Automatic annotation (TrEMBL):
Species for this entry: Parageobacillus thermoglucosidasius
Name recorded for this polypeptide: Catalase
Record PROSITE patterns: CATALASE_1, CATALASE_2, CATALASE_3
Species lineage: Bacteria, Bacillati, Bacillota, Bacilli, Bacillales
Sequence ranges of Polar residues compositional bias: 7-24
GO biological process: hydrogen peroxide catabolic process; response to hydrogen peroxide
Length: 488
């Protein structure tokens, strides 16, 4: 018989009794000198870190990424170079709007975040299961998320607020059409695609740069869930997607995705018919075909959900040499906001946690802060420049220069075409898909308490495609406003 492990306190002292508190006689009262009891209760009160403001509910898994097509022509990022090269990854899938205990099968975008543990540091691709987003300037993000969360008065979800915001933000139409279509509720996390969504810059060893977009295509095939079944499952098994991912990996049915990229020459961005940095738009695959990069496989479940999933932190600012940001306004803000959220939620030293720690040596002059649990740099020099052999910059990895010009002012995007791509998406759908899209939208808009909001949204649908607008209007028992028909 194996030796039984001794139960200890957090400071390593053996525990003599873990079933009974120390009391003054029988029945008590309990004595405050029972430090083991006090420690257990105090730690229990602090077991939860604040949940994520968005993407609170999620599941994660470990795996690897293997290069199948060398990308050194376009980027010096080693993670994408060398056919057969494998890099460990950790992936987190999530819903967006719900709380930590919410249902998996709601109509909502899904987060799709990948952490590559590369030999040049961690590289995070932090995207969704949609190639686009609702807004394109982060100054609107807090307002948008407030409409997706609970009403401050009723503490209930508020469809009126949701549609009010969307109807006043026509750039959301493309994503709204995507969300209320079949892909708004994936069958499982394994049966959905993932996208980097933003445009990034790739730079090769010669310093030559291109614009790039990421597409993770599921090898299980895209499969979606019927809304009525989704509602039923939400009540019976709110953790359905979490359970499915865990069980599939546990039985050896490892899900995989093939990573593709679209490549755009830098000069094309100046003349392309859509702003290539606008995250509410896509690039045509005819103009910029998908190029295969590699295959991602998830083959190991976490041993501890809190340590590996809840404490996992991702940021689009976690870049490696050969990958740089673009002028995308949403991306620029996310470079700050994500890391800042982690400093608040998990702590300033969140990157030291095992799930987030790079697999390479880290050398910098950052010291101290809450929960610094390594040797804190020991006795090494903590400033730079210095005369004591401390780490110094590597000049060949400076970010490539790019020109900027113009007045410093609050300016909108100069592209107000919010309708072409949303209409194209609608026209790509089969008659059955269109019918389901309209049904889903109508059922949601029926909950809106103000007719003005419904009519304003109908105008947007009509501008995208007259049939789209007419069918939503008919479903709501309304007429398409005359002014939008006249000006169409």
């Amino acid at each position: 018989m194996a030796d039984t492990k001794k139960l200890t306190t957090s400071w390593g002292a053996p525990v003599g009794d873990n079933q009974n508190s120390i009391t003054a006689g029988n029945p008590g009262p309990t004595l405050i000198q029972d430090v083991h009891l006090i420690e257990k209760l105090a730690h229990f009160n602090r077991e939860r870190v604040p949940e994520r403001v968005v993407h609170a509910k999620g599941a994660g898994a470990h795996g690897y990424f293997e290069v199948t097509n060398d990308m050194s022509k376009y980027t010096k990022a080693k993670v994408f170079n060398g056919v057969g090269k494998r890099t460990p990854v950790f992936v987190r899938f999530s819903t967006v709007a719900g709380e930590l205990g919410s249902a998996d099968t709601v109509r909502d975008p899904r987060g799709f975040a990948v952490k590559f543990y590369t030999e040049e540091g961690n590289y995070d691709i932090v995207g969704n299961n949609t190639p686009i987003f609702f807004i394109r300037d982060a100054i609107k993000f807090p307002d948008f998320i407030h409409t997706q969360k609970r009403d401050p008065r009723t503490h209930l979800k508020n469809p009126t607020a949701m549609w009010d915001f969307w109807s006043l933000s026509p750039e959301s139409l493309h994503q709204v059409t995507y969300l209320f279509g079949d892909r708004g509720i994936p069958l499982t996390y394994r049966h959905m695609n993932g996208y980097g969504s933003h445009t990034f810059k790739w730079v090769n060893e010669k310093g030559e740069a291109v614009w790039v977009k990421y597409h993770f295509k599921t090898n299980q095939g895209v499969k979606n869930m019927d809304p009525e079944l989704a509602v039923k499952i939400a009540g019976e098994n709110p953790d359905y997607h979490t359970e499915d991912l865990y069980n599939a990996i546990e039985k050896g049915d490892y899900p995989s995705w093939t990573l593709y990229v679209q490549i755009m020459p830098l000069e094309d961005a100046k003349t392309y018919r859509f702003n290539p940095f606008d995250v509410t738009k896509v690039w045509s695959h005819k103009d910029y075909p998908l190029i295969e990069v590699g295959r991602m496989v998830l083959n190991r479940n976490p041993e501890n959900y809190f340590a590996e999933v809840e404490q996992a932190t991702f940021s689009p600012g976690n870049l490696v040499p050969g990958v740089e940001p673009s002028p995308d306004k949403m991306l620029q803000a996310r470079l700050f906001a994500y890391a800042d959220a982690h400093r608040y939620r998990v702590g300033v030293n969140h990157n030291l946690l095992p799930i987030n720690r790079p697999r390479v040596e880290v050398n910098n002059y950052q010291r101290d802060g809450f929960m610094r649990f390594d040797n804190n740099g020991g006795g090494s020099v903590n400033y730079e420049p210095n005369s004591f052999g401390g780490p110094t910059e590597v000049s060949e990895h400076k970010t490539t220069p790019f020109p900027v010009s113009g007045m410093a002012e609050s300016v909108p995007y100069d592209d107000d075409d919010h309708y072409t791509q949303a209409g194209d998406l609608y026209r790509l759908m089969s008659e059955e898909e269109k019918a389901r899209l309209v049904k889903n939208i109508v059922e949601s808009l029926k909950q809106v308490t103000k007719e003005e909001i419904k009519l304003r949204q109908i105008r947007h649908f009509y501008k995208a495609d007259p049939d789209y607008g007419r069918r939503v209007a008919e479903g709501l028992g309304l007429q398409v406003p005359d002014d939008v028909i006249t000006n169409a």
